Amino acid sequence: MSEEERARTRLPVVDEQRVAAPRAAASSLDPQQELLLRLEEYRLQHEVHAAAQSANEVEELLERVITTLLSMSELEIQSKGGAFLMDEEAGGLRLTKTVGAFSEEFLERERFVRLGSCLCGRVAASGQMITSGNCHTDPRHEHRFTGMTAHGHYIIPLLAGQRVVGVLFLYTDPEPAWDPHRVALLQALGGTVGLALERLQRLETLERLNHELAQARDVAESATRAKTEFLANMSHEIRTPMNAVIGMTGLLLATELDVQQRSFVEIVRNSGEALMALINDIIDFSKIEAGELRLERAPMSVNECVENSVEVLAINAAEKGIELAFRVAPDVPVAIEGDSTRLQQVLVNLMSNAVKFTSRGEVHVSARIVDAAPEDGDEVTLEFAVRDTGVGITPAALPRLFDAFSQEDASTARRFGGSGLGLSICKRLVDAMGGRIWVESELGAGSTFRFTVRGARASYVRPRYLDGESAALAGARVMVVDDNATSLSIVRQYLESWGARALTFQSASAALESLSDSSCHYDCAVIDLRMPEMDGLTLAQRIREGPRGAGLPLVMLTSLGKQPKSARFSTFNAFLSKPLKPSRLYNTLLTVLSPAASAIRSGAVGARVAASLELELDRALASKIRVLLAEDNRNNQMVARLSLERLGLRADMVADGGEAVRAVQRRVYDVVLMDVQMPEVDGLEATRRIRGDARVQQPYIVAITANATVRDRERCLEAGMDAYISKPYRLRDLRRVFTRYARDRMDAGGDEPQDEPQDEPQDEPQDEELAAPRETPDALAFDTAALERLTELLGTDEPAALGEFLDDFIPDIDTLVWKVARAASEGDARALKVAAHTLKSNCATVGAAELVTLAKAVERAAERGEIDARAGSLKPAHDRFLAALAASRARW
């Protein structure tokens, strides 16, 4: 018998003298009386069980059960009874139901009975049934009422398993004949009623919660409608002046401007268009929420949509060293009926995410037909795919990925920034275009976002490069050299579609070996600039030095913004930027393979392209900029100092926000690099104090923090900061900051840098890239990509210099691991948060990927006042990092 069953049939502890006589009396019943008594008990059980199963409310259940029990003969019942329900929070019983005539005094005084008080309170405390023969003589009957007549009691616990959920009481005549069998039956029925009571209470609780949720939903929907109207109104208000900015800069660009002025106007124009894109996102979301989105149905070129979308992200991808490529399958219609703006919006959003979450490797965009059933006539379904080799997405995040304001990792508030609207807008736009969107992802290996679009084939002018075999290119033998297999495959497919023969090589040495074969003839060579072992410039020089390469037309493939200034560019006949557009490749090959190809080569072309794409901080201006660095961590001070020195800058250093305020009051600084999290006075408070001091000549304040969420940026801007960069430090981040400062200074009438680069998109936080799981345990513990960033920082790849830096840097990580462990053991959430935050920042700098992930989790928990158990995992992870780093250093 189970414990629950034993509890239900447990006999009450009663006075033996009271039950001895009734036992004898019960045993003296004749067989017919015994049979009638048992039949009544069966009826009683049946009716109680029926009530327990069919009652829909607590009071209904109690009334039916009490009425049934009061109908029993042989119990000497007085037709009065009731039930109390347990109130665990109050520590007692509350009168819930009565049947029969009770005085007002009774109903008032018995509304609440404490546990252990009187008969009912004792039963509730013990879970044992009590029988009482006379209320006047039983000392356990503590409650007395005016005019109370003598009576006895059955006090029955209502049990749900071992838990008392209530008490049922029945009035009897004084000193009734107690039948132990009947007492046991009542105790068992109390268990049946208790379980039914618990079920109904849960249902009532669920109904109440559902009602509250429905009310909350109505309130939320009302708030959403108000928010949507506000966003739409505000966005339209902002669009009006932005349209004027973009329009007037467009008119200004049509006037006579020198190179410098044109550069400045283009920056304003590009910035305005970027802001307009953000506003458009807000308006789109508002329209979608309000059900007012309208799609166009017009002929759109599939190839142009893909090309235009890829071109938008080309510079971003080039800046990160990511290979960006695309391929539209040959059988895809030239054009379909649809909304080209919305299609490009989805593609740009997906590609932007792909580039954002990819630190190395490639992003590839493709389009193909997946359905062109004859019964649909001209209707086709196209599938677009955006594949990356980035950090991937956790399985837990996939179900909510396309929800509004939701991002891959909400608890970190999306480490790479973003509003959380992009994917939600994509899904709703794709749904509106009759398609669907989904994602396939492997954590640490990348993601592929796919979506479909339906549309009818549309008539459209067919570009020449889509016409198939070209008489001008048919039979031409083209060497293609690129270390990226995807890029090679795409170029080969283009060339073969035009009738040319493509011979592809993934290394410069293999290409040179092929040229040494006298039987192998080439009409042209397409060479990627960035390749391991031997880059494209060196390969071109080696080709020119060979007897068969002097007159060979050479075409360079290069990522935007990555060409160095070099006279060796004169070796090439033409230049093509990645991602490679088939139309540009087609036209370029037509040009270089023509008889006049040799006349196209010009040394000035390479130099001019290199000069326009190079990004440097003007040294003359750098010497005039006074910089203050507010940073409490010694390692971060060292990294910042090295970075600034690489840019020709010098900085004064302080270790606290209060010191920064005092320093600015004592001396004029042009730029303040302000760490956000510092002891005593943090960066946000220090900025507020500086901005609020009318005596201070206001500097350009740049927030620096390892926390890189949208809300973090908003807080920095609200505090009065001018810009925001994330840790770990990168030269391009600081270069961008000082370039923007120089631009603002020029607008105010100050000096201006020479050859100022074009404005760049905001940096996205990078620390999560390091935290992404890798394929091997060593790579998980240590991300070797950090060494590339450090060699850039140090300005040398000499092992001795890199080793010296690491030897200075690593001991502080050891100390921080210890501080985190100590704060966790002492339960000091505040100290734990500070130590974990600093550890996260330092580990990101040196590529301790696993430690970054753990420190971030510990920091987030500490922000909530909790002590995360993963604090105990830092030491083993730290040991693995040191071992992996030592193994890497052994190979230098």
What's the short version?
The protein has 892 residues and is of the alpha/beta class. The protein is 49% helix and 16% strand. It has a six-stranded antiparallel sheet with strand order 3-2-1-6-5-4.
What does this structure look like?
The protein is of the alpha/beta class. Mean pLDDT is 77; it is low at 1-27, 410-419, 596-616 and 750-776. The protein contains 30 helices and 23 strands. 39% of the residues are buried. α27 packs antiparallel against α28.
Features of this protein?
892 residues, 23 strands, 16% strand
Helix and strand topology:
Layout: H1 3-8, H2 16-27, H3 31-54, H4 58-70, E1 77-87, E2 92-99, H5 104-109, E3 112-114, H6 118-126, E4 130-132, E5 152-160, E6 163-172, H7 180-253, H8 259-290, E7 298-301, H9 302-319, E8 323-328, E9 335-338, H10 340-356, E10 362-371, E11 379-388, H11 422-432, E12 437-442, E13 446-456, E14 477-481, H12 485-497, E15 501-505, H13 508-515, E16 524-528, H14 536-545, E17 554-559, E18 574-578, H15 582-592, H16 597-600, H17 603-613, H18 619-622, E19 627-630, H19 634-646, E20 651-654, H20 657-666, E21 671-675, H21 683-691, E22 700-705, H22 710-719, E23 723-726, H23 731-747, H24 767-771, H25 777-781, H26 785-794, H27 799-826, H28 829-846, H29 849-863, H30 874-890
Parallel strand pairs: 8-10, 14-15, 14-16, 16-17, 17-18, 19-20, 19-21, 21-22, 22-23
Antiparallel strand pairs: 1-2, 1-6, 2-3, 4-5, 5-6, 7-9, 10-11, 11-13, 12-13
Helix pairs in contact: 3-4, 3-7, 4-7, 7-8, 8-11, 9-10, 10-11, 13-14, 20-21, 27-28, 27-30, 28-29, 29-30
